[in-house]
## 1
Amino acid sequence: MRCKKMVDVGRRQFLRGGALAAAGAAAATVTTTPAQATPANAQVDYPSGKLANVADLAVNEPVDIEYPDADSPGVLIKLGQAVDGGVGPDGDIVAYSVLCPHKGYYMSYKSEDRTMNCPGHFSRFDVEAGGQQVWGHATQNLPQFTLRVDDNGDIFAEGASDLIFGRPSNVL
Amino acid sequence: MAYKRQIDRLPIPPKDAKVHNVTCHYCIVGCGYKAYTWDRNKQGTLKDNAFGIDLGEQQNADGTWVAPSMYNMVKQDGKDVHLAVVPDQECVVNSGLVSIRGGRMAENRPSKVTGTQQQRLSDPLVWRNGTWQPTSWDDALDLVARVTARIITEGSEDDLLLSMFDHGGSAGGYENTWGTGKLYFDSMKVKNARIHNRPAYNSEVHSTRDMGVDELQYQYSDYEVTDTIMIIGANPLETQTNLFLNHMRKGLENGAKFIMVDPRRTVTVNAAEEVAGAENVLHLAIDPGSDMVLFNALFTHIVDQGWTDSDFIANSTFASGEAVAEDAAHPAGLGSLDYALATCRTSTAEAAEICKVDEVDIIKAAEWIAKPKDGARRKCVTAYEKGVIWGNDNYRTVGSIVNIALATGNIGREGGGCCRLGGHQEGYYRPSDAHVGRPATYVDQLLISGGGKVQHIWACDHYKTTLNASQYKRAHRKRAEMVKDAMDASAAGSREQQVDAIVAAVNAGGLFVVDVDIHHSQIGQNAHVILPACESNEMNLTSMNGERRLRLSEKYMDRYGNSLPDCLIAAKLAQNMERVLREMGDDAYADQFKGYDWETEEDAFMDGYHQGNPDVTYERLRAMGNNGVQEPVQGFENGKLVGVERLYMDGKFTRHGRDDGKALFCAASWRGLQAPGKEQERATHKFWINNVRANIFWQNQFLDKDNDFIQDRFPYPFIEMNADDMAEMGLNAGDLIEIHNENGTTQGMAYPTDTAARGQVAMVFGSPTGSQGNVVNPGVNELVLPDYKHTWGNIRKLADATPAAKAVSFKSKEYTG
């Protein structure tokens, strides 16, 4: 139940306000430079943050991430088969917020069917279908992070598809 | 790939934003929200805003957050303003929780700026030149009044067929039920009326009322302090979402047992297991339609074990034999416990055989309901809904449920209750409907057989939500087309000539159709005059929820275009009827249509509800906020309206109108599938076709046909199906399939479902693109309550999954931690 344990670590981090360095966890945790609000721009300027290298990822073993900042926990997953929106050499790497877009509870990854599950009110999201809410109370699908992979295989997050729970702007 | 909103920032409401009380108008629970509106050119900041919190910090779980669906830009006093509709943490109903429906109230508002709900009707439409043309209220209502007046004076008011909501919330509420009720039940005595979801003007729960027990007598907090929750034919996590999450869940966390009676395993069962542990959840997956046998066995076992509440029975229930004999208006006799039990008596072994569940589970259910716990009476809340209301033998089955609650003293007491869960909120205040009679007219059959000449439809779309819908639609379209042809042929003539042509067409078998709705509905395709109504919050609206909590949901935006509240449309129609009848020289009849000089919805409220409840005014309700007051209102003290926590706390039962105040038991005699044709249908088809609800658009699907988030998830109505059944038929996930039987056909997409039993499919009800009612036969009970739930059909493949269906996730809907 490795993935659950990592999620627990992530939860503790979240509850204490997004501190880093989870000792003993295999998860890669990455912070990014705090963004400067740029109200003159129509679009939010997202930071570019390195999450991991494709060589670090094993199929169906989620990695905790934080994006666009340390207070916004997420998950990076190599699915093992190409999906719409997937990146990397196999087109199978995706990343999502793990805060339920219903009431902000920290969700856990169920590797058996590759869904994010919310213990708060039982919502579920399909990470193989772009974060579509399978069943639940959220009024949007799961915020998916826009990924870029460079020539070295480094994976960067550079945007988000939907508003992240608990903030009026994805970049605060 | 899933629909992405691509929104990464929202405007912030400033500290001086206007705040309005909002009760969600979609489902019966009526969650509290606050609507914030502020000027287009103003905004708050991260530090200084209407919420009084630092929005620059990531909010924790349950923290205040405006989701994109909670935001829109609407018209208020003629100006564009920002709107945010946010769940109210202080409302005791939902405590800040938000459902997937209520959380979309803002985006479901019409907005010229953001383009939402542009399908809303803005002006009256009249059939002209082969299509629907916009016109004025005066022009449209003149035509309606002239045709209606001619028909009911040349014939009678029985020639007017009426389809009319009777509920609260979105389309209803005390203002609008009164406006329409006064018009049709006071100015006129229209008896050929039906309600939005059933083909007659009747109660869905006649038997509990006849037994003396109103169907909404508890309060939601009773779930939190009970020993056992029994849910029958209902799926509250989907359809009363925050009742489950904010109240039932607390009960389970406090140690309550959970019994679910439903042939289908639902997300509610799963969630109950997650909260309470599977050992405290009992799912009785009975054979479809056998509910009454189970309840009769539970009743029998509880009495035989001596687990009844003898003091309650002695003091509060009828003691001596039969009180009401079975007759045409009463599909079962009513009387004392012993009287009823003589008919109901069923052993647990018999029930196990008929219901196809284990006898030990039936005994366990009886123990969880009534076996004394630590020497004390056990408390049990029972709630039921469409599984029995739209189920087999409605009157007797509902009666058999209430029998158990009465025998165990679980009505009028904390931690008890025996209630329907409800669909819409309630909001019924009308003149007497006694002239309708009981049994009431089966109006759909009357229409199909050529009866009636003019039809007034108020916020109903029988294309999507009636039974025997295939035949109904064919008859309706054919009769309406005759009038369209007559109108086209006489288009160049005077109004008088056109009315003559319409009257001639209806006398030849046509039907003149007037449709009042917020948008051009499917049945509206057959309408000749379409009148634009508005919704809650585009008007002030009062309703009560499933625990009788009365609130005023405030107007915060302008009506769309020239649309009007239903009550004011009714008033205008009445005024036109008066004018036309006077012109026709019928002053006495015209005088019946006086008394509609209402300028606002508040005037309608004061004319109706306030007359019967003189303590209640808009001002007082506004002051009571989102927690409102629980009806019936007892008075006004210390600046507050005073209500009641639950009904019958004094042990006196009154709903039947009996002077003795004694509740009656129901002699619920089992007779198999009661409605005509059902047994034959079961015997000759492969699949049981259940009809079910989905939280995503329960009670607001009519608004969602252009909503990308919703259509992305369910581009077609889902039909949950066992994977082995699918494999046997060569079906893949998302394939378009057709259900067919002698009543008609309907279609949807196959949704493989692990928990679906073989030979049972569950199709979502009320879809605009696949009416489940097409395949439901016309069978009803003696009081014209339809049995939608018992339908059998065969299934065939129409097409492979379309690209839209292939993008859908077909994973299990059940959460697993």
## 2
Amino acid sequence: MPEKIAWINVPKDEEEKQSKPLSRLGSSLSAGLSSSPSKRFSISSLASISRQSLPLSLSSSPRRPKGSSLSSDYEDAQCHLALEEQTIETAIRRTQLSRQNALRSTIRDPHNPSNRTGGEVLEGPSQRLSDMSLSTDSSDSLDFSQPSAFLIPPLHDPSPPTVADFNIQLPLSLPPPHLRLSSINVDDDDDDDEEDEEEPIFGVSLESDHEPDQDQDQDLTMLPPCSSTRRRSSASAVVLQKALRGNLRKMSVVFNSLLTPEKRAVRKVRELSRDKGSYFGSLVQEYLSYMGEGAGTQELKENLSLYKARTPQEMGVADALTPDSVAIEKIRNKFQAMCKKYSPEKEVTILLRICKLIYTIMEDNSGRMYGADDFLPMLTYVLAQCDMPQLDNEILYMMELLDPSLLHGEGGYYLTSAYGAMSLIKNFKEDQAARVLSAETRDTLHQWHRRRTTQRSNYLRVALQELNSGCTAKTLQVRPYATVEDVCQLCARKFKVLDPESYGLFLQMEGSSQQLAPDTHPQKIKAELHSRPEAAPFLFVYRRVANSGTLSSATPNLNHLDTTPDPIDNLNHLSADLSEPSSEPGVGSDLGPPTQPPQQRLHL
Amino acid sequence: MATAGAAGGGKTFSFKVVLLGEGCVGKTSLVLRYCENKFNDKHITTLQASFLTKKLNITGKRVNLAIWDTAGQERFHALGPIYYRDSNGAILVYDITDEDSFQKVKNWVKELRKMLGNEICLCIVGNKIDLDKDRHVSVEDAESYAESVGAKHYHTSAKLNKGIEELFLDLCKRMMETAQLEERAKGNGASQSASSRRGVQIVDDEPQAMPAGGCCSSG
């Protein structure tokens, strides 16, 4: 069982982590581009992106046996080209010998693929070249006594058809060399490394794919240019690459001219998404690095299988009916359908359907209504039974891209529940029974919340107190590191104070009023006050400084405030390691643990 | 997020309310009673009782409530923050026959005040008053505790449908008040804020002691 799971899951993970978010991002971007959201446009771009960029993912995962139906015309084109492209075959033959041994050793492993696609392969080598090119699975199921030429094409073929595909919206010669390099490196990232032993075939195909991809696959360049060292380079791939390059270049020129304006726009968006300097780019990049950090995956898998052994009762379900294996299978299918959707809204719709199904099963026509006490444990149980580690990323994806207004509705609720259930599973330890969210989860959540509510947390409410006219309060936008001096200047402007030098910022609480020293940070003070166990009401008041001398009296108290050990520090000290890909344009990279925006900390 | 969204002429408030409390204290029954019983139950949700919505009309203003139920079992406690973040109100339910459940409420209050400050309206609800003969949490204790933390206390029975309507209505009014004050502060500020939000009184010249507790301390 475990082997099977590993086999099935790994390619998906791969896909999830690297290609899908990218292509999906790309597609959602393209959808957002057209001023009138044209469905057709987004769909077609989506399809073409995934086709051209995911030759592997289209069929390498067993869950997409019908991937070919979606791309049948694509396959046709591919087939033609694959057959006509003499060069490729020549090159393939040339590399045949050098590869043969390696491939044989790798193929003969226990990860026998599901044979869903196996049938097609038997029809005849030359005819099915394209098929194999689409499917690493099918190549697996070949009789190994066949010449490995048939095994190699799958690894390299995707390129020419990709070029031939008229859906390609990207210029084939575009990516500048440095981008290519970095992107290629990323694909071979540590995750890949980890899985290498388990998934040699996949690893090989990935690698060899990259070489020709350098010339054409634009999608790769979407990958974050994060650092990781080039692992190895396969000699045969290089040979192939050389052989292919000339022809591909020529073709790329031709197809480049076929680009439509929309496609150029998509291209532009992609370029933008690579630019970490832009807000958009930083969002995308952060998201990608988010998805890239797959360290927890293995643990998640283990925990899933641990959790799987538990009964719903153990998880806290009181007396509801539990989904049987048939129902679980049904739910798993729905989840798989959900994963294939690109729009987070659509995904959430499916999630809601799944939840409804779970409720229906629980209810069992009894008419009883179940609240979270029963539902959340059941959802956790179902998620564990489904045993789909890729759901973790999927849920993150939805939380990341779902429209904020929807986050607070029903979809948001059940998404939150799914996230919670998944966190419980992820952090499941037999001994501690998930008493606390793991640091990682908290941090992820914290970052997520910061991203989604950036604006909110930068406000400070300041009241203007005038001797004769009572009090006016304004909510000002005050950055976390703004000093009292900054705030005073802002107040003078906002409240139209004519003699700002005679005004000061005061903290008023519990019957006392203290002037704040110019170099203290109001947001930090606010955060400290909020984090006190007994939160006393307080207010920032901008008013005329009565006499001299107030200032000194205020300082000691506030020093005390500033140095109070932050009671919720334990929630945050971890964010240091992950805070680097911050998307906040304002706060940026200078986010250190000690100086972290205090207000944001509080809103977990 | 969830505060007041002005829609055209009439204003519509959208509030998120989170239900917290130990398992078996009757959170779900409470909210089901409220959402299913009276009014028309045309809430959008077709799902069950974990997430419920309610549309109200309070003094001519439309209010949309989204009620988020949480799992009360200890092992789910850690998930609290993902549910209560951005909430405008929290209903903390305990069972009057179960002192432990009251203790849990205290823990939640502490956590909420710590994480959300006074921005959130707290309601502490002693449920199952139909079982008053088995009461283990005294009314005085509960009410004085609530007052001390700036929360309001309610006595309800989901079984007898007692006190529930009042609870939600009251909470809505308080959340509206909070939202309006916030709105005013955000907008042109000005005169009304002499009675500044959250019960904070500022009188010129003599900084006064502010009443303990937050928005919920009054009334």
## 3
Amino acid sequence: MAAVQWRSRGRNYEAELQRCHPEVALVEFGDYHPLKPIMVTDTKTRRGARKGSTSSSSSSSSSVPPDPLSSMLDGTDPLSMFAAASANVVFQDLGRKRREKEEEAVGPDFEPWSSKRGEILARFTTTEKLSIVTAVVSVGKAPSPGSSAVSEKVRTRLEELDDLEEGSQRELLNLSQQDYANRIEELNQSLKEAWASDQKVKALKIVIQCSKLLSDTSVIQFYPSKFVLITDILDTFGRLVYDRIWTMCSDPRPLPDSFTVEDVNDTAKETCLNWFFKIASIRELLPRLYVEAAILKCNRFLNKSGIQETLPRLTAMIRGIGDPLVAAYARAYLCRVGMEVAPHLKDSLNRNFFDLLGTFRQISGESVRNQLVLQRVEVPEYLTLYSPAISWILQCIAYRAPEPLLTEMMERCKKLGNNALLLNSVMRAFRPEFVAIRATDFIGMIKDCDEAGFPKHLLFGSLGRSLACADPPESERLTILNEAWKVVTKVRSPQDYINCAEIWVEFTCRHFTKREVNTVLADIIKHMTPDRAFEDAYPQLQSVIRKILTYFHDFSVLFSMERFLPFLDMFQKDSVRVEVCRSIMEVFIKHQVELTRDPVILNAMLHICKTMHDSVNALTLEDEKRSLALLIIGFIRMVSFGRDFEQQLSFCVEARATFCNLEPVLVQLIHTVNQLAMETRRVMGGNHSRKTAAFVRACAAYSFITIPSLSSIFSRLSLYLLSGQVALANQCLSQADAFLKAAVSILPEVPRSISVEGKLRSSESFLLDFINNFLATLLVVPDHPEHGVLYLVRGLLNMVQDYTWEDNSDAKVRVYISALPLLAAMSQETYLYSIPKVDSNETLYGGDPKFLSEINKLCETLIGQILDHLKALGRDEKVAAGSRLIRTSGLTRRQGAVAFSLFGVLLAHGDLRNNKLSQLAVNLWNLSHKHGYCETRISVRTLESIKHQAQQPNMTHLSDTVQRLTLQSRT
Amino acid sequence: MSVTLDIRLKRANKVYHEGEAVTGVIVLVCKEPLQHHGISLSMEGLVNLQLSSKSVGVFEAFYNSVKPIQLISSNIEVAKAGKIPGGKTEIPFEFPLQTKGNKVLYETYHGVFVNIQYTLRCDMKRSLLAKDLSRNCEFIVHCQPQKAKVAPTPVNFTITPDTLQNIRERSALPKFLIRGHLDATNCVISQPLTGELVVENSDVPIKSIELQLVRVETCGCAEGYARDATEIQNIQIAEGDICHGLSIPIYMVFPRLFTCPTLETTNFKVEFEVNIVIVLHDDHLITENFPLKLCRV
């Protein structure tokens, strides 16, 4: 084919722009316009609408049609309707439970047992070996349906029970704590299995066995945990029995939640009664007590006052337990069940507590002492074993209790000689407000306590916990802190010390200034540094930091605490250190609103960020890196030196040196520097002085040497381009050239596929996007005087040609096609856009015919290449068709698409007055329609648009062309 | 071909009183129609007496057991020989619980040497090739409530080394003082035995305090009578070294079937006692005995 002669169409951008603007017509008030604001004249809030959803229905003034969006939501909007409906369903489902709750009058403010459970399990552990005595639970004979004689049944069952009590016992020795827990869990499982397979006697046996374990106080340190594990089983059992009887009554229809005795049928009553008789005949005290407590709720089936009568009886029964610890926990269990089943029966709770006080002297009794000696347990440690039980009992009593009752309780405790153990539980269980008001009293009581029994730091710990939630009277605060800290600081063991100090930090932060907090920190450092005690106290130290961060959001204050950074230095384990830094950074990002240049903050923050950065190594996870980088970026964005640009730049230099391992941070730094350059330009109003010019060049240099250290090719490319644009805007021509050249030179490095969010994807589309963007920039880049005309464009096109594109892809040709508009734009007399104070090629060459012909030649080459490609596609198609390959349509479709886009370019940018060009356009049109892959709608619209253009002056020639473009009807 | 035969009483707790009617249904479940030679139902109340080998020698005990005393007996034919359709068939029945003559219906009691038991027995006769079917069902008889009012008779007790009888070395005994009371010794059988106990002081720690319920059964026969005391149940009320000076509740539910109102007839007697057993840590066993009189109101 003879070379095509390219002539760019002359453009008058201004005129075109004018034409594109439709006439501006003001919208009259009342006229309809889709974007006109809707006048809300009436707003009512609907019930059930969720927060954040459109909850107001709006009715507009009559002349304005209703907003289609809000009219959709007229009535209840569908989402909240669903939500309301499902809430109803849920409500019905939960109805039973909820109503029970209401009846029980235990609100959500009652800390449930479940939350205590984990705490106890974690706190009371042992490394000693445990033993468990269990009967080998014989594979229970399923009750033979044949013997309906009551006596036989009862007899066999009782025999089985005896069997369990006397014979076939086995002692498992040397269990570790974990084994023990597992064993108990096994029992729990076998209880459920036995129940499911209708072996009720076996189930009862298991429960009796388990509760028997509670009378064993060997390895006493583990007792509270054991209690938790075993009462879990008891709870399960209680639930099973209750549910079973419940279902027995719900034959025609389920029993209402507020059922009365009359609603229960005889069979259910008889079954229930049977359980109670059976349990009443359990030989040992402790199992009888626990199992009856477990099924306390079942009394509801028998009579109204059952629970009311049983609770005091069980409470009195506990008096028969000799071991004070076992008794205390039995009381705790009874209170727990009582709270669950009948929280309104406060009397027995109080009774329990008074009984407990009554037996308090036993704790220091002889048999206890002997036991402790035997087990080599210290008294203070022994006493702490009580605290979960007593705290729980007191919590139950204190729940919504009137003030006088609490005062009375306190008085009683006082009477017992300020028993430290009790005092501790009182402080933990009673409302923090109650304790806070009397904080001074409590301190006095704590002081009067006997030092030997219960360590005072625990008492102060409990007091501190209350004071952290409620405020004591203002005038007493300082005295309280002084008194408390006097004791805390004297605690010898670092572990005890930090446990207590950690609690008081909150009080200090809450009510005092940095001076006091600083003192506290200094004290902590003093205590924790010797022998590297901090190594064992990281969780507590972390919590100290957390508490300080909750109350101090002003970082200049925070970092001006002398001891804060030394405190951070105590975190020497890498993972913890990073964790702490991270939490500080998070608070910083969240609460630092204003940009800062405060050297104190900057120094400290740089230090913290550096710590985070330095934790990155080869093994760090991608996610971890990303989140660290985000935090550091957050910091960098908060740094501003105002008009002191040079300092800002030197900060960036420093930051680059510090954070060189985190790419996102480097990217951010480059952006910051580029922004700095643009800011300088703005300040100078576009006219750089000698000094600022040097500065922006320095900025460019910064970017230029930073970019190559990035590994992601696309960030490099886009940053080169961006920095080039910034350099150009700042009249740094040679720098801009260097950036763009660098971008072109790394193009061949772009891999064919890149990983996007962990998946390999073809890089082609990204590359095309970039190149198009690049081309748009090239319009304003003036040619380098030493290199040839259109040096960069040529360079880019060469790179494109040499790049190994994917097979079967038109990407290369697409680049060529998109280069044509650029070239056409370059040949205009005035360019579409330009950069102030930068002379583009339009002024450099001034429309020199040589320059234009260079451009035209280049265009012709490109078109030649494109046409060759089209031909090649056609040829391949023939070959494929010849060899009877079926998948040929792909080629023709591609051919059509490429031809059509070239047609588009010709139409928009080529001078179609030239016969050859217009002939080419017509050919391309026909080629693209040859195989019928063209979207008819687009073709029709194109034709319409051409016709429309043809009406413009200077464009009349188009009408001839149109006549030659035929529309292929799809048949 | 499977068939199940069952007797279902109307009352869930199976408790009946004299003069009432024992009602219920016989339930037959079979897949196919069933041929039979008649179904009969009988009610019987028996007192079984047995002599213990302790009081009369092994051989006498073996073959000299006393003849059972029949309290009530009746028999009805439920269905004549014929066919029962497949599926579930329920045949209702009703027996009046009435004695003949001046016999008394004693309360159901399961003991060791005395057993008072009431049963329903359903028999289904079948052809030679198939086995006869039968089914037993025990029901429980409670005697009529006692008319006279029961006046509670509280009993106070004090146990010290000096109050004890039947000991070998009084000097080896540690010192202790245990006080307490039972709210009543003539108890209503449906109410628990209650009371209180206080360990005022004790030189040796206490290991355990238990309530032992004992039945005393007496059988009269030609050669005289045999009287035996056996344990019914043992309930622990205190475990370990309990707090001194603090009252501990005495509380025991009388087990059903194994207890009945105290019974005295010409041929046999059933009486109950409770022992408070205190076990000291050096395994000294101190027992205080209280005879009980049980009644039903």
